[in-house]
Automatic annotation (TrEMBL), chain A:
This is ABC transporter permease. It is found in: Cell membrane. It comes from the Bacteria. It comes from Prosthecodimorpha hirschii. Coiled coil: none annotated.
TrEMBL record, chain B:
Coiled coil: none annotated. InterPro entries: ABC_transp_permease. Keywords: Cell membrane, Membrane, Transmembrane, Transmembrane helix. GO terms for cellular component: plasma membrane. This is ABC transporter permease. GO terms for molecular function: transmembrane transporter activity. CDD domains: TM_PBP1_transp_TpRbsC_like (cd06580). The chain crosses the membrane at residues 29-51, 71-91, 98-122, 128-149, 161-179, 211-234, 255-276, 288-304, 311-329, 341-360. The keyword Transmembrane helix applies. The keyword Repressor does not apply. It is found in: Cell membrane.
Amino acid sequence: MNDALSTVLLAVFAGAIRVSTPFLFVSLGECLTEKSGRINLGLEGILVFGAMTGYAISYHSGSPWIGVLAAGVAGSLFGAFHGWVCKLPRVNDVAIGIAMMLFGTGLAFFFGKPYIQPTAPRLPALELGFWSDVPQVREALKINPLFFAGLAVAIVLWWAFRNTRWGLIVRMTGDSSATARAMGYSVDWVRFLATTVGGFLAGVGGAFLSLYYPGSWTEGLSSGQGLMAVALVIFARWNPLACFAAAVLFGGAGAIGPALQSVGISQGYHFFNAAPYILTLLIMILSISPKRSLRGAPAELSLMK
Amino acid sequence: MTETTQSSGLAAPSAIGEWIGGMRRSAEFIVIPLFALFVSASLFSLFLLALGKSPQTFFELLWRGGFGTEFSWQNTLVRTAPLILTALCVAIPARLGLVIIGGEGALVLSGFTAAVVALPLLSWAPPFVVMPVMLLTAAITGALWIGAVGALRHYRGINETIASLLMFYIAVSILNFFVEGVLRDPSDPNKPSTAPIGPANMVGEIPGLHVHWGLAFGVVIAIVLGIVMSRTTFGFAARVTGGNVRAARAQGLPVGTLMVSATMIAGACAGVAGYFEVAAILGKANGSLIAGYGFTGILVSFLARHNPIAIAPVAVLFGGLAAAGGLIQRRMGLPDATVQVLQGLIFVVLLVSETLYGRFRLFDPEARG
């Protein structure tokens, strides 16, 4: 019994780190975009398209890291398009996001057909469990470098929002476009850049899905992670460090089902599959109040109006 | 006496002028979406050319597979029925300014509950009992599912777009949990499904059309909702709320009741779509319910500018596109996602074309010349 429990806990720990990495990247991308005052629901589409691009390029080039880069570039192109289109008058950023979600997913399935069968080189893991003799511990401590890269991005963003000129400009555009304009900054340009960089991060998150965990390209690869990341940013109150914590929490929730299955408990598997979505909804219900505005919320965000 | 004749003499031409002005204004809502469709078709042709495929063959096959023969029309109209209903699930809340994209979830869950509620009735109840019970169950399930999204939005301030999509994934998990678990029909070796509802309880065809009654239901519901949204106080209050929530509150409109009832109507529409998928097509509930009608319905509603009456013809167009998908896939050697790419492209171009409204003097009755 005790043995099974420790197996499950280790599996949840390892799963939390594995599952959280794409959440982390997408939520950081969304956090940056939303801080500038725009919402990009198309990150779900970018995630899927990034997963496909990363896998395809890794297969052709033989290097998974080139795949990750290509996924990021593809994601930033989608982000740039979103950023450009939304500056036109009367164009709604939420609706464009939904359209980009369907378009990006469609394109990914279209071009991804030939890559479902072949095996592309995957991303290597760092063996941080070398000091232990227990195989489960060694297995649990195989951590992908992208996880640490995500952590680093979170810290840099958090620091930059507070302490740099650029961070101040992004926050100012998000809180009051009139002020930004009065200070002589182009609101459209700042938002365009923020959405583009946000798209890059989401693309990298997608590459993690196909190149590390689950580690292959299939059409059912992403199931709403991109959208849950949007909810996660609200929960994290637009704080990149809190995004990190929230992503790990979500990863843990997503890892419970597979972890229980690994010790032979498969009852209610589909309900554990639903756990992250239910958790997201509950968190939104508990953390949002219609009575007061949220601390840290960019005032220009259409999501909040 | 002279005064009245004078005023009526003045009123007549201004009424005609107003009517022409109105026509010019509504022409804008037809011309710009058509232009968007044309641009999307051109862009998609370039896409096909870049891949070394012939756009001409594509559009010929699209025509033949969707509208060319009696059989393809039948195929198109069978897909039109759920598209009308799922588009209404987007259109009605959109009038209040709510963007609901989880109609697929309501469709899936309602189809499932309709199939399940029939199970205990099958052995003893006649079809005229089973069928309305199934339909009602489906409509109520959908109404509660999407209505919950509206209630969360109003009472807790939760973004309805995200919540409704999250609930789609939850609906799919619920379906899979039961269909692959306790409610799985052991006699079905193929796909995990619930027990069939039996041929007697299936919905028949509209005489002379070879299309099930769901199409008639969809068209009638669309017309009724079109009248409700444009000619009743409910529709007016909904539009005021959609235009400006604060103004609506200041006028004392019951914004919360409006939001919840509009989302419940919307969910009921998607629920009816789920019922017909089960009772007219599948005969049981299984994973085939997740066919993407809910997502195509979003596009249909946006293209129809959330106007219930315009939704029916637009749904025929996309029903045809879906019906031709298989033919295009086989004949041109394109992946099955081709239709999805075209739909996504149309959606993006359509939303970008929003920026064109009000830019042309042709459509502006105030401008002279």
